[in-house]
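To illustrate the input format used throughout this study, we show a single complete record. The first block contains the structure-token representation of the backbone; no residue identities are included at this stage. The design step must infer an amino acid for every position from geometry alone.
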């Protein structure tokens, strides 16, 4: 049984997230050649292999967790189609993880729009499905949006997770499972708890 969203605590959030990977990780990642679970695990694995800090690894691991909105309940009576998965994931995680990680989750879609506006060659990295979603998400940022986004204190980490998002779509990649990363997730949870006590 998964805990009710209101019953999540710093003690059970890591296991709850692991249960999502186990129960839902093989869901189709729309239009991509990997499942949702494979996609997030690939991003985290690439980050780990490249010696990235744990906050980046955990950010990559959880950046798309909000796609499983059924796990998180509905946030608004106004929900129609787009659940804004980046907001859904960040809203739950912000209680348990440092803001740098929840910013990586909350802004990974905006980061795609930002990079398409500021680095035109970035667009060439996008998969067909990512181009399609870019159009739904508002296309490349306008200059005023770019200036605003660039002020985020966690911009560097958000961009790092965005690049991992594009990288984590390989059909031939083996990764460890979520539980390999679980102690790292718990360390980030503990860091957040300590900083708020």
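Output of the design step:
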């Amino acid at each position: 049984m998964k805990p009710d969203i209101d019953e999540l605590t710093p003690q059970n959030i890591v296991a709850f997230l692991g249960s999502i990977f186990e129960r839902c990780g093989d869901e189709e990642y729309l239009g991509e050649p990997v499942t949702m679970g494979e996609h997030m695990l690939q991003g985290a694995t690439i980050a780990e292999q490249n010696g990235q800090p744990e906050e980046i690894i955990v950010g990559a691991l959880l950046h798309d967790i909000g796609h499983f909105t059924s796990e998180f309940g509905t946030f608004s009576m106004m929900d129609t189609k787009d659940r804004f998965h980046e907001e859904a994931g960040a809203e739950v995680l912000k209680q348990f993880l440092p803001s740098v990680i929840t910013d990586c989750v909350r802004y990974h879609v905006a980061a795609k729009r930002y990079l398409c506006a500021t680095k035109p060659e970035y667009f060439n990295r996008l998969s067909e499905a990512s181009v399609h979603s870019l159009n739904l998400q508002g296309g490349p940022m306008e200059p005023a949006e770019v200036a605003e986004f660039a002020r985020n204190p966690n911009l560097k980490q958000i961009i790092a997770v965005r690049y991992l998002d594009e990288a984590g779509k390989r059909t031939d990649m083996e990764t460890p499972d979520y539980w390999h990363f679980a102690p790292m997730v718990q360390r980030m949870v503990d860091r957040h708890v300590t900083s708020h006590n």
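Structural context for interpreting the output: Residues 178-195 form the longest helix (18 residues). Residues 153 and 190 are 22 Å apart (CA to CA).
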